[in-house]
Design brief:
heterodimer, A: 139 residues, alpha/beta, Rossmann fold, five-stranded parallel beta sheet, B: 334 residues, alpha+beta, Heat Shock Protein 90, five-stranded mixed beta sheet, two-stranded antiparallel ribbon, 9 helices, 64% helix, 13% strand
């Protein structure tokens, strides 16, 4: 299960994304933020694993928000602007979804999330095995 | 000297006319025939050379130089043939040098007159054509400019609107249906921009109302809208999508950047009964300096007004007070 936070200044955009995410029970929306400042606060308190930030928000951009975070969760941008896609990947975004979000694209993004997780798990397991084998040799 | 020869020339032509009325002088007839024939041949040759080497397209000074050279060359040729003719056939004794000088100066004068007329005629015609071409070019450039700078609908607006409408489909189906109509109206109008130079304010206001209604779906209570329209201005012509661009600008740089949102007001009035004044105000502040006259929306507004009205129209945008930005367009009444 992944805890997700939606950060978007438009209520309807948030509600639409929540509706789309309802098809993916492994993603649980634990909160919504209505601007970047609100987003930073909710990330501190709610500790989400996954962010769905918009890029253009009243106070700051989604990029500014990420720059302020000490420990960044996984990020999937959702925006109507296609020109920021390259910049998004500079911020290690997992994916970049264009509004209106296509359900298939959202599913792909979530699939990517699982793949990444699997990779990390395998890497961690390999690391653990290394440590164990080193211990075996020692004993 | 010249006047002597001038009088001489005249006398010769009187002789020529005298032939018809008085006595037959075969020599004079033949001589005159020679003068005319040579004149026609030489000016024809002259013309072909001038056309072939495009003398008329040269800069003025060089063209005059080439023409002078051509006149002297032709006059020498002309005088040589005529002198030979006179030495051979003249009933009175003629000596070569004065006869040549006489013919040379006489023919130079005639050729100069011909060249001057030819030159002036073509020069006037050429400059008239150049002017005509310039006018045609200006008209083409103007249409092209208008086409390229005509404000285009911001695609982000369309996608954001569609995103809101999709959310509305479940939440408020009736509003979603109206929103789709509003969006189609705007799309249709933005496509018609290419076809017309002016629309009535009333037409433009219909688009602006649809546009703001859609943005209201997005921003909800964050966007408040006010209209203050003098009914007398409804029929006045304005450039299509200009008001729309300014209102869109007010949303993009004003309301959407305010956490609590704000107010957009659109006003249209007559000023001193000589000008049409459009005013768009929005909550917000211009913070950055407007380099190069602002973004594309503002630049295109300025450029379109300039093309359509010249100096008779004006556009300015400024901070009205600490919370409000005001954009104002003044257009002349026709």
């Amino acid at each position: 299960m992944k805890k997700a936070l939606i950060i978007d200044d438009e209520r309807l955009a948030r509600s639409e994304l929540k509706k789309l995410l309802a098809d993916h029970p492994e993603i649980v929306v634990i909160g919504e933020a209505v601007n970047a400042k609100d987003g930073v606060e909710k990330i501190e308190t709610l500790r989400p694993d996954l962010l769905f930030p918009d890029i253009q928000m009243p106070d700051k951009t989604g990029f500014d928000l990420l720059a302020e975070l000490e420990r960044a969760p996984q990020v999937i941008f959702t925006t109507a602007y296609d020109e920021y896609a390259l910049k998004a990947f500079e911020y290690n975004a997992l994916d970049y979804l264009l509004k209106p979000v296509e359900p298939k694209r959202l599913a792909d993004a979530i699939h990517k999330l699982h793949q990444q997780e699997e990779k990390e798990r395998l890497a961690a397991a390999a690391g653990l095995r290394n440590i164990l084998s080193e211990n075996d040799q020692c004993s | 000297m010249v006047s002597d020869f001038g009088v001489g020339t005249l006398c010769r032509y009187f002789h020529f006319f005298a032939f018809f009325f008085d006595r037959v002088d075969l020599y004079l007839v033949l001589y005159t025939f020679m003068v005319v024939l040579l004149g026609i041949l030489l000016t024809h040759a002259f013309r072909s050379v001038a056309v072939q080497y495009r003398w008329m397209e040269l800069p003025f000074e060089r063209a005059v130089f080439y023409f002078s050279f051509g006149i002297i060359f032709c006059a020498v040729l002309d005088a040589a043939v005529l002198t030979a003719f006179r030495l051979l056939f003249s009933p009175v004794g003629e000596s070569m040098v004065p006869s040549f000088m006489y013919s040379f100066l006489q023919q130079s004068a005639i050729l100069t007159l011909w060249a001057a007329i030819y030159f002036t005629w073509h020069y006037v015609e050429k400059s008239r054509n150049v002017q005509l071409d310039k006018l045609k070019l200006e008209a083409t450039v103007r249409t092209l400019e208008l086409k390229t700078i005509k404000a285009q609908l911001n695609p982000h607006f369309i996608f954001n609107a569609l995103n809101s409408i999709r959310a509305l489909v479940d939440e408020n189906p009736q509003r979603a249906r109206t929103a789709i109509t509003e969006l189609s109206n705007i799309l249709r109008s933005s496509m018609q921009v290419e076809k017309v130079e002016m629309v009535s304010l009333e037409n433009e206001l219909n688009i602006v109302r649809d546009y703001l209604a859609l943005e209201h779906i997005r921003f909800e209570e964050r966007l408040k809208i006010q209209y203050d329209i003098d009914p007398e201005t409804l029929e006045l012509p304005i450039p299509p999508m200009m008001l729309q661009t300014l209102v869109e600008n007010a949303i993009k740089h004003g309301i959407s950047r305010e956490i609590r949102g704000g107010v957009i007001s659109v006003a249209s009035h007559l000023k001193d009964n000589t000008q049409h004044e459009l005013t768009i105000r929005n909550t917000g502040q211009i913070r950055e300096r407007l380099s190069n006259g602002g973004g594309f929306g503002l630049q295109s507004t300025r450029a379109r007004l300039e093309i359509l009205f010249g100096k008779r129209a004006s556009f300015e945008i400024r901070n009205l007070d600490a919370q409000t930005v005001e954009a104002k367009v003044l257009m002349p009444l026709f």
